[in-house]
Amino acid sequence: MNKKQLTREKLLDFTFDEVYVHGYTATSVDTILKKAKVTKGSMYHHFKSKKELVLAMVKERLFPKMDIFFSYELKEEQGVTQSFRATFLMVSKNRMLVTYGCPLYRLMVELSATDREFDTLLSTKATEMREGIASMLLTGIERGEYCDSLNIHTFSDFMLNAIWGMLSLSPSLSSSQNFLHQSNYILELLKCYEN
After folding, report:
1. Whole-angstrom distance, CA of residue 165 vs CA of residue 17
2. Residue 66 φ/ψ, nearest 5 degrees
3. Cα–chain center distance at 153
4. 3-56 belongs to which homologous superfamily?
5. Which residue in 9, 54, 69, 92 could disulfide with 176, CB within 3.0 to 4.6 Å?
6. What is the CATH number of domain 70-191?
7. Distance separating alpha carbons of residues 174 and 166, to the nearest angstrom
8. Hey, what's the torsion of the CAs at 150, 140, 167, 104, to 10 degrees?
9. What is the DSSP string of 55-94?
10. DSSP characters for 107-166?
11. Count of CB atoms within 10 A of residue 52's CB?
12. Predicted confidence pLDDT, tens digits, the chain (195 residues)
């Protein structure tokens, strides 16, 4: 990786950290530059504005992290409920998620109402996450794990919103144990649809 590419990567990494912890509005370009040890001129070589930098960070850092944070994939050796349980356990072990909440959700709350470009980009990922959950639920129906009265779209919306809500508690109310306890309730509700 050459020096220009390295500079760009550092900017994206530090932007993710700053925006995640402080939000878009409270994050200053000067803070990012200072932490990344990059000059303003070098930043403007890659990105024309703070908004362009954050949009690139969303695509290149946030979205891949969301795929890791919320790995709604069916494990071949597990059933759907067990796969959800494994995802919830993984989330509960991520200190940043438990402390600061879901970075996608936080940005959506902060920016979607005021910026159409951010809204479109962030909503696309949220829809993809909902569809991933719905796909797993459909697989559960097809495999006979759940009955066909399970409304996969309504339940996937509920599940995603519940998880975001659980992760949006203040740090004093948020803990790995609380998240696991609350996420187990989702799995208890899902039991109502088991065959």
Report:
1. 21
2. -60, -40
3. 19
4. Homeodomain-like (1.10.10.60)
5. 92
6. 1.10.357.10
7. 8
8. -100
9. HHHIIIIIHHHHHHHT-----TTS-HHHHHHHHHHHHHT-
10. HHHHHTTT-HHHHHHHHHHHHHHHHHHHHHHHHHHHTTSB-TT--HHHHHHHHHHHHHHH
11. 13
12. 788 899 999 999 999 999 999 999 999 999 999 999 999 999 999 999 999 999 999 999 999 999 988 888 787 788 999 999 999 999 999 999 999 999 999 999 999 999 999 999 999 999 999 999 999 999 999 999 999 999 999 999 999 999 999 999 888 888 999 999 999 999 999 999 998
Q: 34: part of which helix (H) or strand (E)? A: helix 29-36
Q: What pTM value is reported for the model?
A: 0.91
Tokens of 121: 């980009």
* DSSP-based three-state secondary structure for 170: coil
Q: CA 74, CA 100: separation in Å to the nearest integer?
A: 27
Dihedral of CA 36/41/43/46: which sign? negative
> In whole angstroms, what is the distance from residue 52 CA to residue 113 CA?
18
Q: What amino acid occupies position 76?
A: E
- Cα–Cα distance measured from residue 3 to residue 26, given in angstroms and rounded to the nearest whole number: 29
Are 29 and 53 spatial neighbours (Cβ–Cβ below 8 Å)?
Answer: yes
